[in-house]
Amino acid sequence: MNFTGAHILSTNQFQRQDVERIFAVADEMEPYALRKKVTRVLEGAILGNMFFEASTRTRVSFGSAFNLLGGEVRETAGFENSALVKGESLQDTARILSGFSDVICMRHPVAGSVADFASASRVPVLNGGDGANEHPTQALLDLYTIRRELAGTGGRSIDGLKIAMIGDLRHGRTVHSLGRLLSLYDNIEVVLISPEELTLPPSIIEHMRSAGAKVSISHELTNSIRDVDIVYSTRIQEERFTSKEDADLYRGKFRLNQAIYTEFCQPNTVIMHPLPRDSRADANELDSDLDDNPNLAIFRQADNGVVVRMALFALVLDVADKIHEFSYDVRWYNSRQV
Amino acid sequence: MNFTGAHILSTNQFQRQDVERIFAVADEMEPYALRKKVTRVLEGAILGNMFFEASTRTRVSFGSAFNLLGGEVRETAGFENSALVKGESLQDTARILSGFSDVICMRHPVAGSVADFASASRVPVLNGGDGANEHPTQALLDLYTIRRELAGTGGRSIDGLKIAMIGDLRHGRTVHSLGRLLSLYDNIEVVLISPEELTLPPSIIEHMRSAGAKVSISHELTNSIRDVDIVYSTRIQEERFTSKEDADLYRGKFRLNQAIYTEFCQPNTVIMHPLPRDSRADANELDSDLDDNPNLAIFRQADNGVVVRMALFALVLDVADKIHEFSYDVRWYNSRQV
Amino acid sequence: MNFTGAHILSTNQFQRQDVERIFAVADEMEPYALRKKVTRVLEGAILGNMFFEASTRTRVSFGSAFNLLGGEVRETAGFENSALVKGESLQDTARILSGFSDVICMRHPVAGSVADFASASRVPVLNGGDGANEHPTQALLDLYTIRRELAGTGGRSIDGLKIAMIGDLRHGRTVHSLGRLLSLYDNIEVVLISPEELTLPPSIIEHMRSAGAKVSISHELTNSIRDVDIVYSTRIQEERFTSKEDADLYRGKFRLNQAIYTEFCQPNTVIMHPLPRDSRADANELDSDLDDNPNLAIFRQADNGVVVRMALFALVLDVADKIHEFSYDVRWYNSRQV
């Protein structure tokens, strides 16, 4: 695909070569994200960070990524107060807000709303999550994490990957999107571990199988994670259930801790989670005794969100090859370097 | 007036030459707003964007305008949490907040509050809307739009303008302010089209008439827009009525669509609206079938808000003649140019 | 202490020499805070301004301080929407958010939470207030104000200071923290003026006495302020009482106005208040007829928050000696200069 000026709305837009282009640019962003260097390539550009549904970390991650390229951020962080409640169409909102910025990131609670918005926007729109539908940057940062973690431990590649997806696979849009992206690669093996009522939607299983992936379904944890490269755990999406009590039925069913990891996993099995992990006693899907495990990749995963989002901004605004030209060394104390 | 260091609180401050000075500076802002060029003239300056009443678009428009001049924005977006609820006077708030920035834009639900605030501020204050009282930047961007649209279609000027104002003329503060500004020009003719209960306040009609404008009142749409240069439509200001049911009595009375436009308007009649337009079926004051009409100026009108606000910032901070000195070409992909 | 990379969590961290180092750097920030000069030393750096409890002025003061050093600000302004409600631990939040910025300022309603957060953060954390526990930058700006005001009126120094603290000394965390900081100095005399039920906690009185301060307790205003250098008034912290009615019992007990000042204070007694002052008729602890009194330091006190916070950022990021290197003259109209 041609990234310049494009909207980033769905993982379905990408071919394998597109994903690899994004990842190559993300690799180049690392010195900036680690605050070894500063680039000012987007000095004067404005991101409209339009979160019509609250999300501190995704909003701040997008905003920081844009700041790290030298740009400014104008934002909104809630639905109630927008003109939408005065009867304005999303297309009108898009025509107006796109006059205020060079690129827009949008989150909205309604599935399909971000694509609607993008159809009337005069600047590129990045989907920051539209309800239960898509969250493409999360899927990209997950796959980028898989790629880096595998390369770091034994030089494995994504082709031939064996991954276990665990938890609320029905409601978790991150596993849906990741499933689609993995279908771009060869010899993928996926083990789906969930309560029977919370398994992955059949359409996504079908999509993966028709792309050649081997997909198996399990309702048991320990024996299903014996020989996987990646354990991808998720939280019960309580907000998608009809009641807290209903969600409680499924919480804490598939807990991973260091003892289970030691007994059942391979020594270099990588542990991932889209975060937030639910650390309350009745959930605790990833125990805090894993925090010293070097294969716990969940915080590197969150960090990778910044470089992947920087890469997307650089690509849609066509500055990927000018990043270094406008750069200099960081002048302040950098605690990450120590 | 001398703009340097001045508060911008009301349309009553301006003489015709002041308005024309603002518009001349706004014209110079266009290459920056269109992202052809970047200026860093206000690099290091801070705007305090204090919205004590929510408004996504006006808040973001002010913030983006300041960013486009190279400055930073600190902001607040709600009333509940401010120190005002702990019994602090607006004057105290102003003395404190004006220590944090170089210029302040303020919106507040109480009429007169922004002027109160300005009286104790040590930096220039721009009124971003104080209840039903004033919203001077909206009136300026409306008049700037009229000037540009008329000049673009046949080289007409504001002197001699015939304009129809339609809808909730009683509560819509934008038409009040625009009425006052139009009084600065010669041979203006205004047709007020509203339900009888929602007509323009007599004081404003009197103000226009004593300035020489010809003002007529109508309760019917089609025959009243036959020979006007501008149709200025507004939404029913539901939030100013005692109940939704009360507002419903007046909604959808004066709808304009392409068929009516073709039959009754002149071929170059310009259509304006302060936005948001209410696109719900029971309101729909400007039908979406007008969206392809080249004389529909509503989105150009919103865009004009950015250059007008840039001009006001440049004037009160006295950098209008230094904009180009600190400029360079945009480095990134500009979707507006295509 | 070594400031580079340090967390600033509590006034207990500081020795006298540390406080004086902060104040020396703050002095150097004045030309930048007064907009005589601009520095870009932190251009490219990001502050994560994480306010999990609302506070317009403290949040904007931190953000402006960082902008004045050339850095960018990403922020959040409320608790409800954070991942904490999905069961995430503060440590997880810290690991993630610290990947998005170079330094974090955090306010949180729970005592001890900011230290918890800091323990897992990879970047320096500044405590912006954790419940009733600590608010170290407020104490520093108070002491900085005392130092400047005393130096300005007769060249007095903090050693030998006599200060009256007035009002709700039980709940006001600012007087708690200021009490601890004053203990670093010699020959301090403190007069505590409050209702009997709202006196300073015994632990803080004990702390001051064991450091050599002379502490007396009074329940009467006028005769207790006869020979003090500083009158430090505070508001009744209504939000810490069980009901408004309970707070009402104590409101307005110790009002200072110009008549009382003239009759009982010394001619150069300085009036301070952590703000907001409650100006409602039933409270009115500092009457507005004091606003023309040159010794009313409350607005200079708020302004001093900016330079003290700039100093802390400069110290923890180790750029205090590079500020001037990246500076230039302000290009815009500066209303503070007039």
Protein architecture, described:
Three copies of one chain form a homotrimer. With 338 residues, chain A is an alpha/beta fold. Chain A has helices at 16-33, 56-68, 90-97, 113-120, 136-152, 173-182, 202-210, 244-248, 258-264, 298-316, and strands at 37-39, 46-51, 72-77, 103-108, 125-130, 162-166, 189-193, 214-218, 230-233, 270-272, 327-329. In chain A, the strands form three sheets. A five-stranded parallel beta sheet of chain A has the order 8-7-6-9-10, with helices on one face. In chain A, strands 3-2-4-5 form a four-stranded parallel beta sheet, with helices on both faces. In chain A, strands 1-11 form a two-stranded antiparallel sheet. In chain A, strand 4 (103-108), helix 4 (113-120) and strand 5 (125-130) form a beta-alpha-beta unit. In chain A, helix 1 (16-33) packs across helix 10 (298-316), helix 2 (56-68) crosses helix 10 (298-316) and helix 5 (136-152) packs across helix 6. The interface between B and C is large, with 39 and 42 residues.
Major beta-sheet overview of chain A = 5 strands, parallel
Tally the beta strands of chain A.
11
- Could you tell me the CATH topology label of the largest domain in chain A: Rossmann fold
The assembly state of the depicted protein chains is homotrimer
Count of separate DSSP helical elements of chain A: 10
Mean pLDDT of chain A: 93
Q: Round the Cα radius of gyration of chain A to an integer and report it.
A: 20 Å
What is the chain-wise order of helices and strands of chain A? HEEHEHEHEHEHEHEEHHEHE
CATH homology group of the largest domain in chain A: Aspartate/ornithine carbamoyltransferase
Largest interface: A-B, 39 and 42 residues
Helical amount of chain A? 25-40%
Broad structural category of chain A: alpha/beta
Number of domains of chain A: 2
Q: According to CATH, what is the class of the largest domain in chain A? A: Alpha Beta
| Strand line-up in the sheet with most strands of chain A | 8-7-6-9-10
**In terms of per-residue confidence, which ranges of chain A show pLDDT below 50 for 5 or more consecutive residues?**
none
Strand percent estimate of chain A? 15-25%
Distance between the termini of chain A: 40 Å
